[in-house]
Every structure is written in structure tokens, then in C-alpha cells.
Amino acid sequence: MRVSIPQLIIYIILAALLITQLYPLLWLLFYSFKTNEEILSGNFFALPAHWQWHNYSSAVDGGHYWKYLSNSLIVTSITMAGIILLSSLTAFAITRFRWKYGQLVLLVFLLGMMIPMQGTLLPLMIIFKNIHILNTHLSLILPYIAFQTPIAVFILSGFMKTIPAEIEESAIMDGANVFRIFWNIILPVSVPPIVTVCILTFINIWNEYILAATFISSTNLKTLPFGVYSFVSQYSVNYGSIGAFLVLGALPVILVYFLLAGKITKGMVAGAVKG
């Protein structure tokens, strides 16, 4: 198969991007299996002389990995469920109901995307303290839902606008109410953008550190990003174990992204190509 020069240039650029993206991951993986002497030798491209599997056992046991992982799973799963429920209902009301304030409500949600998370730390701290939910998982779940819902509404409303109105009209003639139309018709059709929202939400929440470090003071409630920070501080001279904990911390996001990466593109363009 002949390849033209423009195609060859594109392939070279894509190969260079692939190498630059994969190299840090591979370097961190090899780093986690090395001894301190090998790491400090400065030979970054060398494979470990002896694979130090005990670095991972030190990371799991000494870093309380499973505790931090379970906390992250609890916070992330509840947050994702709340975002999907609220954003899908909001997008359905904005796009499928015939009312003159629909676009205004959508604009309000889009304005929420412009609010920096760091600018809300102090007022949220005061509010959560007054309602006695500070230092609980709820103090993370509520802000996460608030900050991730605008982008979710934007993605879902863009898709729901393209769903033909004849589908709802037929369902109404058959006696279906609004809830049944949403649950049995709109929601199943909107699976691709919902998957996109789930993936983006998972990645953003899983790696979030600022709110977790501000609102949670109990070690038993901390999430995985804080676990990485505390483990690095505790094992500052054991570089191999630090690398192992970093690998374990990044592993869930890497797996989710590589397994479902195609769904992101499919969901983002679904509204543009449908109908």
C-alpha cells in the first residue's frame, strides 16, 4: 500500500505523540520495580536489574492503599449517580419541554462552568461547618456534583435536542406520561453521551485533591490522591515504593480510559451525527 508524503507526515506526528504519552507511564512502571541505587544512578532507560516486587507490597500495606481506594470508590460512585440523575433530568426539561426559559436555564448552567473551584473553598467551608457535614464524604460529594453537573448538562442537552419529537408524540398517543417517556425512551437513546459524562466525571473526581485535602481531616475518610501525597511524605527515601504507589493510584484511571476511550468520542459526536 502506497503512502503519500502528507500521510507519512501525519503518521510520524501521531507516532511522536504516542511515544510522548506512553513514555512517562512506562518510565514510572520501570521506576516502581527498581532499587534506590538504580534510580539514583541516573540511567532512566535501563530495565531493573532485579524486579523489586516488594515495592508494591510496601505500597499496599504501608500506604493503606485499600482504605483510600474504597473511599475514592464510594465518593466517585455516589457522585456519578447524582450527576447522571440531575443532569439527565435537567437536559430533558430544557430540550424536550416547550417553555421560553429553557435556553436561559441552560445559560445559567453554562455559567457554572466558569466558576473556579478554588474560589469557593472558604464559603463552602463555612457552610459545611454550620450544617455539620464538614469532615464527611458528603462535604466532597455535594461540591463534586455541583461542579461537574454543568458540563454534563451541556453534553446531554446537545444530544437530546437531536432526538425526533415524533417519538414522544407517538408515546403520548399511546398513553405514556412524562416520566415514562424519559425513563423508557429518552434515557436509553442517550446512553452514548451518558457514558461520556461518566468517564469525564470519573477522571475529574478521581484525581481531585484540593477539596479532599480541605474538607476532610480524618485519615479514615481521605481519598486516594491524599493517600498518594501522604505516602510520598512518609516514604520520601524509598523511591521504588513511591513509584509503586503512584502506579497503583493511576491504575484505575488508566484502565477506565483505555477500556472506554472510544466511548468518549462516540458520545461527544453522537448529537452531531444523529438523524
Features:
275 residues; mainly alpha; MetI-like fold; 13 helices; 0% strand; globular; disordered C terminus
Helix/strand/pairing class, anyone? mainly alpha
For the record, what is the CATH homologous superfamily label? MetI-like
Number of strands: 0
Number of domain units: 1
Q: What is the top-level CATH class?
A: Mainly Alpha
Can you lay out the helices and strands and say which pair or pack?
Blueprint: H1 5-31, H2 36-40, H3 54-62, H4 65-96, H5 102-112, H6 121-130, H7 138-160, H8 165-173, H9 178-189, H10 191-206, H11 210-215, H12 224-234, H13 239-273
Helix pairs in contact: 1-13, 3-13, 4-5, 4-7, 4-10, 4-12, 5-7, 7-10, 7-13, 10-13, 12-13
Question: What does this protein look like?
Answer:
By secondary structure, the chain is mainly alpha-helical. The protein has a single domain (61-273), classed as MetI-like fold (Orthogonal Bundle). Helix content is 75%, strand content 0%. The chain contains 13 helices and no strands. The longest helix has 35 residues, at 239-273. It starts with a helix and ends with a helix. Mean pLDDT is 84; it is low at 271-275.
Please summarize what this structure is.
The protein has 275 residues and is mainly alpha-helical. Helix content is 75%, strand content 0%. The model is unreliable at 271-275 (pLDDT under 50).
